[in-house]
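worker-03 picked up job from queue 'complexes'. Input manifest follows; two sequence lines, order preserved.
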Amino acid sequence: MLRAVRTLAWGLAALAAAVPLLTANTYYLFLAGLIGAGVVVGTGLNILAGNSGQVSLGHAGLYAIGAYTGAILATRLGVGFWVSLPAAAVVSGAVGTLLAMPALRVTGPYLAMVTIAFGIIVEHGLIEWETLTRGFGGIADIPKPHLGSLPLALPQYYYVVGAAVVASLFLARNLARSPWGRALAAVRESEVAAESLGLSPTLARTTAFALSAAFAGAGGCLYAYLTQFVSPDSFTFETSILFLLIVLFGGLGRVAGPLIGSIVLMVLPEALQQFSNYRLILYGLLLLGSIYFLPRGMAGAIEAWLARFRHLVPGGEGEPAAPTPAVHPEALEARGVRMAFGGLQALADVNLAVAPRSIHSLIGPNGAGKTTLLNILSGYYRPTGGVVRFAGRELQGRPPHRIARGGISRTFQTTQLFEEMTVLENVQVGLAGPRLGGLGSALLGRRTVAAREVALRAEALGLLAFVGYTGSPHERARNLAFGHRRLVEIARALAARPALLLLDEPSAGLAAAEIEGLGQLIRRVREAGIAVLLVGHHMELVMEVSDRVTVLDYGRVIAEGPPGQVQTDPAVLEAYLGIA
Amino acid sequence: MYLQLIISGVALGSMYSLVALGFNLTYATSRTVNFSQGQSVMVGAVVAYAAYVQWGWPLPAAVALSLAALAAFGILVERVAVRPFFRAASIAWLLSTIAVGIIAENVAMVTFGKDARAFPSSLTAHPLMLFGAGVYPQELLLPVAGLGLMLGVEAALRRTLFGKTLRAVAFSHEAAALMGINVNRTIAACYGISSALAGVAGILIAPILNVSATMGTIIGLKAFAVAIIGGIESPAGIMTAGILYGVFESLVAGAFGTGGREILGFGLVILVLALRPWGLFGTPAVRRV
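worker-03 finished. Artifact:
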C-alpha cells in the first residue's frame, strides 16, 4: 500500500511537470502559478504556525512586501527576476524579524492582534506611500522574467515556479528533521520545558518569524512576476485568511500540507465560479470544517490512514548508556534566599548546599515552598533576595535557558513533555540543547546534519535504556502511560548533560514497583557523577536514597542533615505530625 | 476644528468601548473572545436598517428585533464555534469565530447588497453649533448612550444574581459548577449579551458611518485593540482606552487622513503590546511553572 501511494505521488509529480506540454491554455498555467506562489507562502506560514505554533493573521503583509520589492526593483531600478527573488526574501525576512519583536511577548489572541495590525499597516502603507508604491492603482508594468536574453513566457515561468515549490518543500522538510525543527516544535509544545533544556524561546520564535517571512517574500515576488501587476487589493486581511486556510486545511505542521491546501483553495473558487459571490461563505465553511473534522488537515488525515500500514518499531533497541555530565561535578549553594509573592512570604532566608555527586532531598509539608525554591534554582522565578551560586557563578536573575546551559536541568511536578513529538525526539531535543548547528545546513539537509542525527539517535536510545524506559521510542509522548512519562522526562533532562539534576516530586502518582525503580535510577544518576536535588513526598524513597535532607516548613529551613538525624528531629515531627 | 474632531472621536471611541466590553465579558468567563464581534456590529445595523427603512417598522420595534437577532447570533457563535474548543488549549476558537464572522459578512453581502446605505436619523439632519464647532446631535448621543449602557451593565453585574453567577464562573469553572451553576449557559449568555452590546453600537453608529455589509470588520478589530490596550480584564480600562483611542484616531485622521489613521492607530496597538502586553490598565499575570 505504501508503495502504491508513493508511485501515485511520483506519477502526480510527473504529470505536474508535463502540464505546459499538455496544454497551452494560459488560464490553466496562470492558475498553476497562483497555486505555486500559494505553496511557497503556505510553506513559510506552516513553519511559523505549524512548527513553532504562532498563528499569523497578517501574512498578506509580508507577501505584499515581497511582491512590491520585486515590482519596484524591476520597474524603478531595472533589476531582473533572479536578483529580485532573493532580495524579496531578504527584505521580507528582515521585516518579519522586526515583527517578531512585539510578537515574542504575546500568544493566542494577542499575537493574532499584532499580526492583524501589521497586515493592516502594510495594506494602508501601500496605499499611502504613493511615491514608492503608486498608491491605489498599483504597479502595472512589471516586465517578464528573463533567462539570459530569453524572456520567460507562462509555459517557461511555470517551471520557475515549480522549481520554487520543490525547493520550498525540500527546505521545509529538512528543517523539520533537524535540531532546529525540533527546537521550534519544543518551544511550541512547552516553552517552559524547552527553556529547561537550554533553548532560548526568543531565538526559536524569531527564527521562525524570519524564515516564514522570507518564504512569504519569495512567494510575493513569484506572484508579482506572474501577474506582472501588483496593487493593494491583493494584500488584504482576506488574503491573510486564505493563506492560513491553505495551511490549516492542508495540514498544520505537515510538509505536504500547503501543497494540498493551495491546490484545493486556489482551484475550488475557480471551479465554482458561478458562485463567486459566495466565496467568503466557502472559506468560512472550509475553515470551520477543517477545525471540526480535520484537526491535522488533509495531509494529517492521509498520514493517519497510511500509518495503518506501517508498524511501530518495538523498544529496547539501544544499549543502556550512562549519561555524561557536561561539566565537572559542581556544588550548588543557595544563601539567604527570599521570595515574596505580593504580601505572601513564600521563602524566608533559605540556605541550601548540595554537594557534588550527592543526592540531596528537599522535603516539607504542602505549601512549604519546595517547588518555589526549585523554580528559583532553575531560573523561572527571580528571588526577592539572596544568592544562588553554582560552578562559581551567581545564578539568581539569569533566565532559565542560561542556567540550563550552565549545567542544571530539571523535571516538573506535572510532567512537561513535548506531547506531539515522539519519545525519541523528546530526548533528542535535550541532547542537542542549544547546540542547533547552522540554520543553513539544517535547511539544505547537509550531510553533517544527517550524520549528527544518527549519533543523536543512538545516544538518545542509550539514555532511554539507562532510565529503564521499555516502550517504543517512536510513540508520541501524548500517548504514554504516566510512569513512562516520568522516565522519558528524566531521560530528557539527563540528555542536557547536567551536573545537577532537579527532580520535582518524581514519585507522585507512581506505583510501588515504579518507585523502587525510580530509587535505583536516582542512585545510578549519582554514580554517573551527577548531583540530584530531589523534591519528594514519598518518605521511604527520600530516606532510602538521600545523602542529606533539608526540611522546609512555611518557607523556612527547620532541619538539615543526614536522613537518620532528620527523621528524629523534633521540629520535623512537629511540622509533619503536629507532635513535639 | 479640534473640538469637532475631539467630539467625533469621543463619539466613535465610546462605541469601540461598548463593543470591547463584550470582549471583556466573554474573556472573563471563558478565556475566549468572539472574533466576529465586528460582524455583530454590522448585523445590528443591517437588521435595524432592513426593519426600519425597508419594512417600515417603527424604530423601537426595529431596534428590538435587531437586538433579539444579535443575542441569538451570539449564543449561536458560542454553541458552534467556541464551546467545542474550550478544552483544547489552542486558538481553534479564534479561527472558528473568524470563520463565522466571514460567513455572516458574506450572507449580509448577498442579502443586503454590496453598497453602503445612509441610515436616516433626525439626529443627523442638522448640525448644532457648539463653541464654533459643527456637531451632529447623534455624536452627542453616542457617548451618553454608550457610557450609560456600560455603567448600567456594570451596575447590573454587581447587583444581580446573574452578575454573581458570572463572577463565580470567571473565578473558577469547577467551583461554580459545584455550586450548581450551569457554566455553559452562563458563558452562552455572556456571548449573547456581548453580541447585543455590539449590535447597539452598530445601530447607534449607523446614522454616522452608513450601513454596509463590510462595515464591521475594522470596527471589530479596533474594539479588540481597545480591549487589549485597556486591559481585557478591566472594564474601566476598556472604557477609558476606547475614548482615548477614538480621540487619538480622530485627531490623526484630521492631520494625516484616513490611511494615516489606520497606520498610526494599529502601530500604537503593536507598540502597547510590545511594551505592556497586559494593557495600559491591566496587571501582568504571574507565570506558572
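worker-03 released lock.
The beta strands of chain B are 128-130, 133-135.
The interface with chain A takes residues 33, 35, 80-81, 84-85, 91-92, 94-96, 98-103, 105-107, 109-110, 217, 221, 224-225, 228, 257, 259-260, 262-263, 266-267, 269-271, 273-274, 277, 286-287, 289 of chain B (CB under 8 Å).
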